[in-house]
Amino acid sequence: MTVNSKGYRILVVDDEPEIHAVLAKLLSKEGYDVDSAYNADEAFDSISREKPDLMILDIMMPQVSGIEVCNRIKGDKSTSDILVLIVSARDAQEDRIEGLSHGADDYVSKPFHLRSLVRKIEHMLDKKEVSEFEREIGRK
Hints:
By secondary structure, the chain is an alpha/beta fold. About 45% of the residues lie in helices and about 15% in strands. It is built from 5 helices and 5 strands, in the order E-H-E-H-E-H-E-H-E-H.
């Protein structure tokens, strides 16, 4: 894959093809390198090939839930720095709390406003960049 102008790779993990189409088009237009996975196995295969900076993750998927994917990502030292943004149709407060308690960095309910989602992604990646910079210079 080619590196884009922003230098960030985003993995979209959702079993709905429409979500992939919309997000891939939007995020590519914003300058991100976008990859897609339709289930947990495809997500882990993609991560093993090229680790993303951020993963957009649905909770309700066949076989393995997004919560379990998040647990595995955040529980593995080699992938724990991947930002996880849960995007789910489940929008109850308990769902948000569950997602965040299992390591997700943020949670957005479907349907979502596209521009707001892009801004949230930019904010998450900016914070990650600042944190990495601070670690490099020894402030943290």
